[in-house]
């Protein structure tokens, strides 16, 4: 397990990096390892995609942790399955098709001026997260 640093400023929080393949089995194994090591006061997991998050739901359940009672889980992608699992997965939908179209447009334009594209995601709060005190 590697450790990564998050945040800015002098004091930085350290959190474990459970980088595993982007499939449910990867999220399952990462969640089981995290549960076995203890969440060390952590209250939430943000998975790189919904498939990893769905695997994490199962991994935490097998480890005896309640989602969202003990730990909240959020994914990214808002795949259709996210609303069919138990608990229903909180997720962030990203406008990937729009991003791809804009990237192609940028590539086709002849310009030496650096450009920036800012697209807004949409958070869909479902049952896998809860408010924390």
List the helices and strands and how they pair.
Elements: E1 2-6, E2 13-17, H1 24-37, E3 44-46, H2 50-62, E4 72-76, E5 90-93, H3 96-108, E6 122-124
Parallel strand pairs: 3-4, 4-5
Antiparallel strand pairs: 1-2, 5-6
Helix pairs in contact: 1-2
The rounded Rg comes to 17 Å
Give the helix/strand class: alpha/beta
- Average pLDDT value? 84
Strand order of the largest sheet: 3-4-5-6
In the predicted model, the low-confidence regions spanning at least 5 consecutive residues are 1-10
Choose one word for the global shape. Answer: elongated
Verbal overview:
The chain has 133 residues and is of the alpha/beta class. The chain has three helices and six strands; from the N terminus they run ββαβαββαβ. Strands 3-4-5-6 form a four-stranded mixed beta sheet, covered by helices on one side. A two-stranded antiparallel sheet has the order 1-2. β3 (44-46), α2 (50-62) and β4 form a beta-alpha-beta unit. α1 (24-37) packs across α2 (50-62).
């Amino acid at each position: 397990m590697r450790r990564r640093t998050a945040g800015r400023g002098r004091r930085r929080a350290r959190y474990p990096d459970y980088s595993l393949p982007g499939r449910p089995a990867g999220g399952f194994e990462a969640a089981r390892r995290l549960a076995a090591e203890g969440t060390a006061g952590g209250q939430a997991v943000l998975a790189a995609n919904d498939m990893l998050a769905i695997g994490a739901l199962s991994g935490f359940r097998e480890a005896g942790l309640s989602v969202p009672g003990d730990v909240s889980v959020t994914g990214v992608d808002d795949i259709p399955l996210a609303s069919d699992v138990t608990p229903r997965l909180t997720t962030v939908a990203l406008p990937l098709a729009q991003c791809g179209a804009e990237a192609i447009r940028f590539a086709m334009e002849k310009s030496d001026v650096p450009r920036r594209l800012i697209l807004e995601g949409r958070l869909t709060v479902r049952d896998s997260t809860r408010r924390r005190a």
